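Page 47, continued from p. 46.
Same chain as before, 124 aa.
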Amino acid sequence: VQLQASGGGSVQPGGSLRLACEAPTINFSLYTMAWYRQAPGKQREMVASLTRDIPSASDIQNYADAVKGRFSISKSVAKNTLYLQMNNLRPEDTAVYYCYAEKTKGLQAGVAYWGQGTQVTVSS
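Result:
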């Protein structure tokens, strides 16, 4: 499974960025997808996750308290791509952001994959 993250960069506080994670071999309905981040000297933390609930045919989103109301996770099934829209960025959002995929249904449930990180820097 390949996860290719992109979209990081440097922005001023209050700015926006959109991260993308290309996942060409993943069936989103069988995986929980997420974005994590790791700041220097800190542990990696979950930022946002997206899980397909098949019975209700809806996506369940979860966000870290620090990003609620500012970040939005979404996907394009047609493009096999996961997104993270980040608005009103703050200096404390500075980190390397990682795409994550965990198989939650079917064979090999529990296997997880990480993409390479993309750097997000927020400073004036």
